Each structure stands twice: as structure tokens, then as C-alpha cells.
Amino acid sequence: MDEEDTRDYNEPCVQCSDVNWGLTDEGKFYCKSCHNVIERTKEVLVSDVIPNTKIQSISKGLRKRKKIDKGWEWYVCEGFQYILKKQAEALQKLGVCPRMKDEILCSFWRRYLQKSKQAYCPRPVNDTPQELVVSDSATDVDSEPERVSSFDLSSFSGSDIDVQTERSFGQISSVDKTSETMSVHSGSIDGSSYLRKRRKENVRMSMPMTLSFCYMALLWLKEPMTLSDLLRFVAEGHIPYINAFQYFPEEIKLYGLDLRIFRVESWPKYEDVHNKMLELATFLDLPRFPAITDSCFLHPDMLCIKYLMEANLPDELHSWTCRVVKKTGVGEADFLTLDAENKSARKVNYDVISVAIIIVVLKLLLLLNDQYEWVLSNFAEERNKKNKEGRLWFDFRKWYKVVKKSVDIEQKKLDEERARCLWKCEKPLFYSAKQKAVALKRRQMIQSLQRQFDALTDSPQVTEKQSPSSFQLSWDEENPDGSCFHGHSLEGFLQEKCNLHRPMNPEYWLCTVKLCNKKICGHLAHYKEGDFSKSYQFILNLFSFLLRVDVSLIHEEVCLIEHKLFSARLHKSKKKSKPKKVEIPKGPGNTG
Amino acid sequence: MIGTLRSLARNKHGLPLLVGQSRPVGPRHFRPGGVRDWFILLLPAAEGMDGFVEQPAPREEWGSLAPSIHLPLLPCLLHHPVTRGPKETEFQKTKEACLNYIQDALLQNQWQRAAEFMISYLEILETSTVSKRKTAPELLCQAIWRIGTEILLHHSKSNIEELNYFTERMKNLGVKYYLKVCLEHIFYLLCNGLIDEAYQNLTLAESWRYGEQTAAQNDELKLIQAYKGLLDYYNWSKKREAMLELDEENFTDSSEQEMHNFFRQAAVNLKEIIKIPGVWDPFVVSYVDLLEFYGDFDEAREVLTEYAYNSKFPPNPNAHAYLYHFLKRRGESKKSLVSVLKILHKTVPSHELMLEFYTMLKKSKKDKKRRLGLEVIFEVLDFAGWKENVKAWSCLAEQIKQILDNSNKHLDWVKEEWNSRKDWWPAFHFSHYLAKRNWQENEKLAYEKALLAGILLGKDCKYYKYVLHQGCKAKKKRFQTLKKFVKKHNSAYLRITACSDSSTHL
Q: Region Disordered: which residues (chain A) (predicted)?
């Protein structure tokens, strides 16, 4: 083959002056003697065009393929739309209400496009990048109103999704002339301008933003999935996020600046996604979200049950968490419900607040000053030794040992899993067409090496996905070794007086006396490990592991709850008046 | 118990008392960032404190006036702590963690585990942006090559094919160390007896051309060529064996031609490598063998002399040994042989050729050379490796006997040699334990050593006494003569010790 193609080229090689030409895989000429690749390429007669391609392109509507890489003309927001669709589908597979995708998320997305003037408006911003305006008088401005009318407001779903979404952003003829020059910067049409322009009032789409969209939709539906759950599912690979671009159709080509938009090299951050969600809700001008009442999963009373179970703490603590919720007022629907307009009570991390409540309760009962809880443990241990019948008293020391052990194991497992995680997908990304060959070759190389090492390991698929679960730690009540503390009683910590159950522990310590100013400081409180007792650190770390959020985030929330709980006293003590009597009625039932 | 706890509960309310100060209160007045800023700002000034601070004049009375504070100068350019900048992505963090896991697994010989993590670590080759890379891509490739090879060498499921496959991939991956990979792979093949495959690989590697990279790896290329020469020599010597086995008539011209071809190829490459300063023992030996076979003795001598005496080459005892053997084969004069060994003796007094050296010296008529002979044989026995060498011991015994018989003419030589050894030789050579062991294991050795012990340490020496006792018990005639001999030369012992004592007192 090579001889045939190179026969006619008899120039000596520049490097070694030999006439011995061969063809590379890409059809380039190279010198067989010194491996020097030259600019000359094989001349191919393009006669064998498959007739089907033409039919396909017709069926795809008016979209024209770019000459360079035969990809479609596409907009960045279309890419995000694909990702959102995939994420919504994955969430549905996890059991989320089917309304989420087509009703909620879809309408949020449309509203976003409209608000950010990318579509559903008379003159989408996409159409007027400067390059385009300069380009040609042929830019068909007149066709724009038509496009708006052609918007198909039907749902995301359906087999004809491609056609619909394309049509809704269909750049019919206006970009043809410039597409080639622009493609140097990015695969998408507006990739380069997308990163450049930053309007203050605009909220720009980004990969974490897709999760903010999902979370917002979940919140709207009051789905029983917290943000930490959502992010955990993302990290476990149940929801597409890393390499989400691999679900794009073949014709959507990514390169250049698109990579900066769609390539993910970090896990989504809890606070980042949450803040973006709030920003988005404001931007979209959403009405008040459906109220979160005490029957909702996201209500602290409910979430506390979940986290008490997961942390292997006695069920009885729930009545105490409910009391704290009631006293601090964090269970109020007004406090919990997201309302973009009500700025004062906007930021509620349902999972973190529930965990903080549990921690405050533990501090109330056990003090957690590295002394008192161990004294109580000694009492409980002795008592449990003596009275083998009836309910066991909760023994903090034993609980610590059991939980610490399994958390350490799980943490180790998690760390290893993270290290084993594969970040790259089959479809390699490359910055420009020039790098395509290199990137593909490197990808192939890595894959073949991976296969080789994979063949060495006979363990059945290490990377196999775990089935998604809301719980990371589970404690079997039937387990005879007594590692489950759910049924243990709190009797040892309580005393009865005047028909009131109250903790025996007479003291309390505040994590901080004064909260910082969030606007100035960025945080309400600051966590420095050495400042706090070991028990407190352990409990913070335990919940930080369960929620996979930063320890300081939980600590901050604990400070906040404490200040709400003791607000009356804190203010009173300033005024040097008597502390107000706080009554806690007997029995958990009365707390409501 | 609960009562005591209850008594602790002094307040009447359900909620516990608020004790703010019982715990350290969260940092509220300062922000970590802010504090650090100041700290760093002051740091450069603190370093140059001596130069900046005006020393307050010493005051005699401290209480009279409060000393004024002299603030140090702040540096003109304030260094702000760099908190922003390209952050490490989690992709990189996880890959780093992955590398740590691999290292741990390798250290603990958990090849399976290392291979598992390797699957994930390989992705680091796809690190997206150059600026974010901590290490250069070549280093990454090298790391992967090294780790991968290590795993494949040890993993129970791995085999030669796997390693060949992996090596091919690695050659493609890193052109900057292409020849290094080739070379190591060739070593691996040679270790596994795959000579032909190794030869093929050498030929391929030799003809590898990749622009500037070929020039950059010139050293490796030379090694490749040298090893190719060595394998050519190997083939040549196989042919030679075949030829020697066959009659001359059966040995056809063609095979002789083939053999000569091998010779030519080998000679060219071997000659090249031994020009470079270094230790090239197998190459030199092979080359000399070739030259000798074809009768080019001058060239061989030149090569060996150069190898032994060129000061640019690292000191190499073998070089002298090779030269000595060559000269011996050529039947050179004793003088030249002695001069070679003399140099060798200076660098390696425990060399195995030293006995030969000694034999040559003792035959000499010159006192000076015989004196050197005594020195050589004493020095040989300073080394643990010679401790039980009967030949060395009998040489020494013979030499001393000769001196004693020769009317003690050169007894002062013995004295001088013994003087530096009398502190440690008794424990090193003549202990009671060694007497027992030598007697059990090697009677001849025990006899020679006992003779020396008797003369050098007197007849009260434990070693001498034990061996003599055992020997007499076994009614060996030899030991009777030994006893007589030692008795006869007791005076010599006294002279040796007396002399040495006086010398120590000096």
C-alpha cells in the first residue's frame, strides 16, 4: 500500500537525504530511514461518500456539520442540557419522583435560559458574539423571531430529544461563515465567549451548577435526599458528573475552551453546590418553595432519626433532639422552607443542622469535656454488669470503641476507593485537533496497560459499583455481640425532679461565646482541632465522615444551634439578670 | 454514686448551668488569615533583626526609666502569603494517594494490590495541563515504567510475555529513555537465558533513530553496542568450541567465515566501549580472548596495560590480574610479572594471586625481595578470608623455619612483622577455641599454626599447648618433632618478644 502512495514522491529527506518514504496512520509522509515526518499528506480521492450520511444530516434538520471535524454546531447550554437530562434520569433511577425531570427540572432550566437570555427570548445573547457581527452581512437577523416561535416547550423526555433541543437553539444560517474561525477556540459556538463574559446579574452555568439544579429540583419536590446524599451518589458514580460529556452525541465535539467548562477534575464541594443553588434560586426569582413541615424527610426531627440510627446512638435521644429543635425554633416551616425573597432565613443545610442538633444534645447529656462522659461510662458499665436483665444503659466508652472501629475501617475503605477511582473515560479530551492523535494514542496506551494490569488482578471487578444506599454504616439490632446501641437507655444520664426528666449533667460549655460576622469573616465560627475536647472532635469527625462535609461546617452549625438554644441566657447574662427558668416537660411525647 | 452526681446538679432548672470558661472559647477576636498575615509580615524583619534594631544603651538602674522600644524596620516589599493560585485538583490528589498506596504495597511485597492500584495510577499520564503537573512527564513515565516492571517481575501471574509486552509499551511512551528501557529489558532476557531474543533486541535498539533523542542517549547506545559485541563474542566462542571439537577438515570455510564475522562485529564494539573510562571486565576479557586467538598479542597487551594503568580508569584489581595472567601466558620475564603483582599487592593485599607472588619472591636471591615475600605472606593472613588456608599457613611456617634454620640471620624481619601483629593475632588466630576447631577440622592446618604459635608466642601459648597435647595423645610423630623444634628455638621466641617489648617501650 505504502509503496503505491509514496511512489510518486521522490524528493530526498531533509534530515537524512534518503528517498525512502512511508505513510503514517494519519496518511502523512514520513522517512523510513530517519522517521522524520513531513508536511506532505496522502491525497485521498473522496469518492466513497456513504449516501446515508446525507440522509442523516437531512433528518437532523437544518443543522450543518462543520467541515473540520464533522461535528454539529452547538452551544454550551446545550451541553449542560444533556448533562442535566442524564442526571435527572439517573436520579429517577434512584427512585426520585418522575415529575422531577420533566416538570420541575425542565421548567427550572427553561426559566434559567430565559432569564440568562440564552433562549426563550426575542434576542438570545448567543447570537451576538462580536465575531459574528463583524463577519458577514449575511447574518440572518430576520430569522430570529421565527426561532422563538419554533421553540418546542415539550419535555426533556422522548426519543426525539435531540431534534427538539437542537431546534430550540437552532442557529440556522447565521454562524456558518464564522464557524471555522471560531472552532479554533472551542468546539462549541459560544465556548470562548462563554468564559469571557461575566455579567454580574447573570449566573453562569458550570458543572457544580448542574448539581445545584438537581438539588433545587429535589428540594422543590421535598424528596428524601439531602445534599450530602446527592453528592455522595455523585462520588459513588450513581449520578453522572465526572466525564458527563461522554454522554454527548457523537457529533457534539468538545475541544479548546470547552474543556475548561466541561472537564471535571474535582469532586463537587458541598458548600459550593449549596451556595450556587441559593444564587440560582434568587436569579430565577422563584417563589417560596413548598413548605417543609415536620412530616417531611428534610425536617430536622426526621433527619435526626436517620443520623441517630446511622451513628448507632440510642433511639431515646430523639426526644431530646426534638426538644432542642422546638426550643431553638429550627423546626419551623418558615425557617426551613427555602424562600428566595426572604434573605434572612435562606441558608439551611438540612443534613448539617440535624447533625448539629444531635451533637448539641450529646453535649447537654454527656458534656463531652473528656471527663464527665467517661465518669458516666464507668457508672453505666458497672450498672450493666450488675443488672444483666432489662435495657442496658448507654455506655459512651463502649459506643466509642465500637463506632470508632467501624468508622476507621470505612474511612480506610473510602480512601482506598478514592485512590482507585478512575477519572478518565473512553473518550479522551484534547485541546485542539492537532493534539487529537496524541490524545487518542495516549488513551489507547493507557487502556492497553490497564488491561494488562487488570488481567493480573483476579479479584472480581474492584471497580464494581455498590448499590446506592442512604446509609453508610449499618448496625444490626439482632447482632448478638451487642454492637448496636439503638435500644440502650439513657437512664444513667437523667434524673427526675418535679415530674421533669432532666440531664444529670449540670454544666454546659459553649463552642464559642460570640459568633463571628459571616459577612466579614466568611464564617460564623472557627474550628481549630486542638481547642476542643477529644470526644467532641471524635463526634465531629464521625458526622463529617457520614456527611462527607468539612468538620468546620458542622462545628459552625453546632455553634449556631447553641446560640439559639442559649440565646435567652446569653442575653440575660449580659444584662446580669437571673437566668430564666427553662422547663423541659416530662416524657418525650409531650414535646410534640 | 448517682447521689453524688445529683448533688453536683446545683441548679434547679432542666438545662445545665452555663459555664462559658470551662472550655476554651472559640477564637473570635482574630481571624486565622489575618493573624497569619501579620506573622508573615514580621518574619523577614525578625530575621534581619540584628542589623535593624538599635541596641538600647545599657542602663545601670533599671527601675528609673522604662526603656523605650525601638521597632525594627519593615522590609520595603511586604510579602503577602500566597493563598490563591492554581490549586491542586482532586484528580491529582487522588493519584498521589494512589502512588502512596502502590509504594506501600511494593514495600510489603503485595504485588496483587500494587497491580490493582496501578490500574488507576496509569491515568496520571493523562494529566490535562502541563502547568499543573508537579513532575515532568518523563519522570512520570519513568516512575510508571519502574513500578510496572517491578510488579511484573514479582507478580505470580506474570511471565516473560507480559513483561515483553509492557516493555514495548514503555518504549513507545518515553522516547527520552528509550534505550534505557531497552537495556534493562535485555538484561532481563539475558538473566532468563533468552540469548537470541536479547540479541534481536540489541540489534533493534542499536538501529533506533529518533532525531535528537538518539544523540542525547549516546551513552546508552554505546552500552547497547558493547553488549551486542559481548553476545557476538559469545557466539564466536561457541563456534570456536565447535571448531575445536571437529577436525580441521570438517570445519568448513563457511563456518570459519561466519566465525570471523562474529569476531569482526564483536571486536569493533568491544574496542569502542573499553576506550571509555570505566570497569569493563567482561568486555575486556572477551576482547583479549579474541585478540589472542587471532594472534594479535601486541594489541591485547596494549589494551590490558591501558586498562590497568590508565589513571582515568577507576582502580580495578581485576585489571592487574588480567594483565598478570596475560603476561604469564605469554611467558614474560619474572621481573615484569613481579612488577604487576607488586602494584596489585599495594591495592589488594589479600588478593588470591598473593601466594603466587610470594612463591616468586621467595625464590629470589635478593634480600629485599625475600623480605617483601615475608611481608606479603604475613599480610595475607591478616585477612579473615585466609584464616583457614593451609597453604598460606604452611608458606609462613616454611618461611620462618627457613629463617630460624638459617642461623637467625633475618630474625629481625620476623620481629618487625610480628611487632604490629602481636596485639591481635593471638586472639585472631591462636585462641583456645580455634585450636580445638582447627584440630577437629584440619589437622594439617592445626600443625602449621601450632608451629608458628610455638615460635611466635612461646611454648606456653594455649594454641600450641592444646594442639601439641592432642597430637601427642594421638601419637603422631610429627608433633614430637614439632615439640623439639620449638624447644630448640625458644631463644628465638625470647628474642622476638624481647625485641618487640623494647620497641614498644621506646
A: 572-592
Does residue B286 carry a pLDDT above 60? yes
Cα first-last separation, chain A: 85
Measure the CA–CA gap between B404 and A49, rounded to whole angstroms. 109
The counts of H helices and E strands in chain A are 25, 6
How does pLDDT run across A354-399, given as a tens digit for each residue? Answer: 999 999 999 998 889 898 889 989 988 998 888 877 788 899 999 9
Cβ A528 vs Cβ A556: under 8 Å: no
Q: Does A379 touch chain B (CB under 8 A)?
A: yes
Contacts of B19 in chain A (CB under 8 A): 507-509
- pLDDT per residue as tens digits for the range B420-439: 888 888 888 888 898 889 88
- Give the nearest partner residue to A506 out of B8, B24, B101, using CB atoms: B8
What digits encode the pLDDT tens for the residues A278-310? 889 888 888 888 998 888 999 999 999 999 999
Other Cβ atoms less than 10 A from the Cβ of B371: the count is 16
HSE (side-chain half, CA atoms, 13 Å) at B294: 18
Q: How far is CA A91 from CA A85, B292, B407, in A?
A: 10, 83, 109
- Which pTM does this prediction carry? 0.69
Q: What is the CATH number of domain A2-59?
A: 2.20.25
Closest residue on chain A to B96 (Cα): A419
Domain boundaries, chain A: 2-59, 74-283, 300-411+485-581, 425-457
Pick from A267, A507, A521: which is nearest to B16 by CB? A507
Map residue B301 onto helix, strand or coil: helix
C-alpha B409/C-alpha B370 separation (Å) is: 13
Amino acid A389: pLDDT? 76
Q: Which residue has the cell 471524635?
A: A538
User: CA B77, CA B96: separation in Å to the nearest integer?
Assistant: 36
In terms of Cβ atoms closer than 10 Å to its own Cβ (0-12, 13-18, 19+), residue A133 is exposed
* Distance between CA atoms of residues A213 and A196, nearest Å: 23
What φ, ψ does residue B18 adopt, rounded to 5°?
-95, 115
pLDDT tens sequence across B88-119: 788 888 888 999 999 999 999 999 999 999 99
pLDDT for position B87: 66
Tell me the shortest Cα–Cα distance from A72 to chain B, in angstroms: 25
**Crossing angle of the two packed helices B111-121 and B137-154, in degrees rounded to 10:** 150
Q: Please state, as a whole number, how many other Cβ atoms lie within 10 Å of the Cβ of residue A190.
A: 28
Tell me how far apart the alpha carbons of residues A570 and A558 are, in angstroms, rounded to a whole number: 16
Q: How far is B187 from chain A (nearest CA, A)?
A: 22
Of the candidates B82, B85, B113, which has an alpha carbon nearest to the alpha carbon of residue B100?
B113
Q: What is the ipTM of this complex?
A: 0.73
Residue A73 neighbours by CB under 8 Å, 6+ apart: A63, A64, A66, A171, A175, A179, A189
What stretch of H or E contains B434?
helix B432-441
One-letter amino acid for residue B144 of the chain: I
A183: nearest Cα among A2, A433, A497: A433
Residues of chain A with pLDDT under 50: 1, 44-67, 127-183, 462-463, 576-592
Q: Do B98 and A420 touch (CB under 8 A)?
A: yes
The number of C-alpha atoms within 13 Å of B363 and in the hemisphere containing its C-beta is 8
Is A265's CB within 8 Å of B91's CB?
yes
Site from A449, A463, A527 to mutate, B interface, most B CB atoms within 10 angstroms? A449
Say if residues B297 and B291 touch (Cβ distance below 8 Å).
Answer: yes
A79 forms bridges with which residues in the sheet? none
Contact A364 B15 (CB under 8 A): yes
Grid coordinates in use for B25? 472559647
